[in-house]
Amino acid sequence: MTVQLFIPCFIDQLYPDVAFNTIKVLEKAGCTVKYNEQQTCCGQPAFNAGFWGESKDVCTKFVQEFDGIDYIVSPSASCTGFVRNNFGKLFENNAFQSPAKKVNKLLNIKPNPFEDRVRFFRRAFLDFMLDGNAFFYYDGNDIYLCPHGTSL
Q1: Does the global pTM surpass 0.90?
Q2: Percent helix, strand and coil across the chain, each rounded to 5?
Q3: Where are the domains of the chain?
């Protein structure tokens, strides 16, 4: 599985070891990690400071950088949450609405809310036994299993 890594600006500047460790974990899990050196920020700092126009410019760059990518991985729940909760509003009725929705979907793989724990762990165990990998996503509240080969 090939993934595109998004390293947020604050991790790049303040916690670069998180970026390198994220790569190590993904590679150990069998992923091929790609990194676009032109990426900068998701736009959250400007948005939170009230500069929505400037934020939209940065968000447009973010969408362009990740358009056409199958999987995006980010070690930041904050940036992922910003994309999830605000890109739809920023790009409503805009030429970037469709690519922004695709990026949003990549960062928001949702589980089946009716799946019980036994089935969840059975699927995780099967993923691990069949190909040696089981990918999990924790959003600060729930843990999700992202099955290998999931089509977005």
Answers
A1: no
A2: 50, 10, 40
A3: 2-108, 110-152
